[in-house]
Design a protein that fits this description.
The chain is mainly alpha-helical. It has two domains: 40 residues, no CATH class; 175 residues, no CATH class. Helices cover 51% and strands 4% of the residues. The protein has a two-stranded antiparallel sheet. A hairpin with a 5-residue loop joins strand 1 and strand 2. The longest helix is centred in the first third of the chain and has 27 residues.
């Protein structure tokens, strides 16, 4: 009876350091605090948590930049401000009435359709967010029994590349971009969208390699011509 109890105690003690986090207290000094939830987290789980948080923050920055450059878009959906439009977009849902049931790739593609007259920022970002939610298995907190699919993460990264290209290249009948993003004027260049998207793509690719290495699996890599590229499946893939 004593031996099993001792073994259990040793296991708990072994995990205690991982369950402690360092925070800055009100006095400005760093304090070590015990977080019980970290007992059920591995180091990889904590990397996934941080990676997802950074991906979501990056996508919000992209959406904010798009609304700033394309203020007409948030006005189409009847929002009172770009901040209200952002809050609606990042509330956690993927169903928006103007997208008529479209999600992920279909929603993002709808943003560049000449027949769509709604908020194009909402459409493309809702599509990308749906892919990211699916790649992270619709979770925002990961524990030891949770798992991810490296192919979903890889496909999601490629889809963001496709979306970036479509933003830069798709134009209306007058030859104007449907969505203003990068500014290629040599006198006043602005490549902030490309940099922010590149950071998000790098985070997804990095995590895809981590998950693949954890399971000893390989990612199936796709080569597409961006001019004819199609959005790759994410939700449709199983674990």
């Amino acid at each position: 009876m004593v031996k099993p109890l001792l073994t259990s105690l040793l296991v708990v003690l072994a995990f205690l350091p991982a369950a402690c986090v360092t925070r800055t207290g009100s006095s400005g000094q760093k304090e070590m605090r015990f977080e019980p939830r970290y007992l059920a987290k591995t180091e990889i789980d904590r990397v996934i948590d941080l990676d997802r948080a950074e991906v979501m923050a990056g996508l919000r920055r992209v959406a904010e930049k798009l609304y700033r450059r394309n203020p007409r878009e948030w006005k189409k959906s009847g929002q009172s401000s770009s901040e209200a439009a952002l809050d609606r977009l990042f509330a956690g849902g993927v169903d928006f009435i103007e997208l008529e049931g479209r999600r992920e790739g279909a929603a993002a593609l709808f943003a560049f359709s000449p027949n769509y007259h709604g908020d194009r920022v909402l459409a493309v970002m809702a599509g990308l967010l749906g892919m990211v939610y699916a790649a992270f298995e619709h979770k925002d907190d990961f524990y030891v029994l949770d798992d991810l699919n490296e192919q979903k993460l890889y496909n999601c990264a490629r889809n963001i590349e496709i979306a970036l290209w479509k933003m830069s290249s798709t134009r209306n009948a007058r030859g104007e971009p449907l969505l203003l993003s990068n500014e290629l004027d040599p006198n006043n260049p602005n490549l902030s969208f490309e940099r922010e998207f590149g950071r998000v793509i790098g985070l997804l690719d990095f995590l895809s390699r981590v998950v693949a290495d954890k399971h000893g699996r390989a990612v199936t890599r796709f080569t597409q011509n961006l001019a004819t590229a199609v959005f790759l499946p994410v939700s449709a893939l199983g674990l």
